[in-house]
DNA sequence: GAGTGGTCTAGACCACTGG
DNA sequence: CAGTGGTCTAGACCACTCT
């Protein structure tokens, strides 16, 4: 028997799409409360339960955050709770200090073949490259090289990076209106080259984690490509499998 | 103002607890269908919607699997779909072949301090140690050393491991009634020692991923501790951050 | 107390599976 | 066709937050 409706989409998913539009268009911005379930139900002409189910899914995807008695908020990287959502590196001991980002360089370039492919832009189009260090308790643990599409990050400077208190993604969100939704990391083991070894204060040739990350914003659009080299003598990469 | 009920637990969570008991006790076993939502609602004296919400959570935790039109099933590691739930290693190219497990050794020992701590058993109590190779397209890529509490895995032998077609966890589930629910992995970069290098057919000193995994069954009880060394010249560890 | 999200119910109907 | 999970509704009440 043929499917009766091969493209069947339940009502709450259509509502979800409408809400995603409100997010992408900036009608609702990070950290702000969205309208109450009652209001949304009225606005979309459905029952509260249907709106609820749409919100449920979006909360599960970390797009929204529910706060009982207060309202539903657009998730934000400014929220300290989402600090470790993308950083999986953990100190071996009881060290509870916050990691500190130390921007080193920031320059313009043209996208090569690989960067263009990963960022889904034209080869030769402008990109911005950032190098920075991540320190735990004043100890350098990660060297990152970050590739950003120039189109989106116009006006990004080293001074801006150095002046920012908070995570990179919180800066991207606040200054460029770009919210990072999800990421993919490819992890390999590599030997430290001389330059990296110096920066991480380890010996040349020491095994490091190479963590290559592609980060996506709304609509699964890739907007960041970074490669980090992690020293794992006093830290480890923690992954929870569910 | 004091909280009116500091230990408030909604009805659907209580239902969930009851269903967890049914799972742990073996009343419902992996791969089998559980009673329909209607039946469960009658059995527990609640509405279908409440049962539904309990099942929703358990499905989100990969304890149950819903199949529209058929019923709700207890998740099983025999299901091919759950094969890559815990193995995050991916070949670089288009290689779609299944990894093959090659058990090498299996012997008895007494738990040392660390093994005892991780497995939450007494130091000196019996454990079983398994060494095995994981091959992709006949190429050795991972050497695993696996520590299991002897209490639980009585009767496990090298022959049993070698005779088994399927994943380790599917064997554990079928032969020992132990279902693995979740795991934590700690990843570091290390240099290959001579013995490992030979087994993985790489040079001594080559950087490898060290992946230490603790696996838990129902009730967050740790029942497996393993350390794998991954060669990442033709494969990488893929992690999705959401 | 007013407003928010969170729970629970009862009932109707839809989509999918299998005999 | 009967039985399953999936959707949608409308309404009642609860827990939490802030004023």
UniProtKB/TrEMBL annotation, chains A, B:
Domain HTH gntR-type as annotated: residue spans: 9-77
PROSITE patterns the UniProt entry points to: HTH_GNTR
Might you name a Gene Ontology BP term for this protein?
negative regulation of DNA-templated transcription
Q: Which InterPro entries match?
A: Bact_HTH_transcr_reg (IPR050679), Chorismate_lyase_/UTRA_dom_sf (IPR028978), Tscrpt_reg_HTH_GntR (IPR000524), UTRA (IPR011663), WH-like_DNA-bd_sf (IPR036388), WH_DNA-bd_sf (IPR036390)
One Gene Ontology MF term: DNA binding
Q: Which UniProt keywords apply?
A: DNA-binding, Transcription, Transcription regulation
The record's annotation in CDD domains points to: WHTH_GntR (cd07377)
Read off the PANTHER family from this record: MANNOSYL-D-GLYCERATE TRANSPORT/METABOLISM SYSTEM REPRESSOR MNGR-RELATED, MANNOSYL-D-GLYCERATE TRANSPORT_METABOLISM SYSTEM REPRESSOR MNGR-RELATED
- What is the designated name of this protein? GntR family transcriptional regulator
At the highest ranks, the source species' classification is:
Bacteria, Pseudomonadati, Pseudomonadota, Betaproteobacteria, Rhodocyclales
């Amino acid at each position: 028997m043929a499917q009766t409706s091969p493209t069947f989409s339940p009502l709450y998913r259509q509502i979800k799409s409408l809400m995603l539009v409100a997010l992408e268009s900036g009608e609702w911005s990070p950290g702000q409360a969205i309208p109450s379930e009652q209001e949304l139900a009225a606005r979309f002409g459905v029952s509260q339960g249907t709106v609820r189910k749409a919100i449920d899914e979006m909360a599960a995807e970390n797009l929204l955050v529910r706060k009982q008695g207060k309202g539903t908020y657009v998730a934000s990287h400014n929220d300290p709770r989402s600090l470790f959502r993308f950083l999986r590196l953990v100190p071996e001991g009881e060290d509870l200090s916050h990691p500190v980002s130390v921007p080193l360089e920031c320059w313009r370039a043209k996208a090569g073949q690989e960067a263009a492919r990963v960022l889904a832009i034209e080869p030769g189009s402008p990109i911005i490259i950032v190098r920075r260090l991540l320190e735990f308790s004043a100890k350098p643990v990660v060297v990152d090289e970050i590739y950003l599409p120039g189109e989106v990050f116009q006006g990004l400077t080293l001074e801006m990076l150095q002046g920012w208190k908070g995570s990179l993604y919180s800066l991207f969100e606040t200054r460029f209106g770009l919210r990072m939704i999800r990421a993919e990391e490819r992890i390999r083991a590599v030997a430290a080259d001389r330059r990296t070894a110096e920066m991480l204060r380890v010996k040349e040739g020491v095994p490091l984690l190479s963590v290559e990350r592609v980060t996506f914003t709304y609509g699964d659009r890739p907007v960041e490509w970074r490669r980090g080299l992690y020293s794992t003598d006093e830290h480890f990469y923690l992954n929870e499998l569910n």
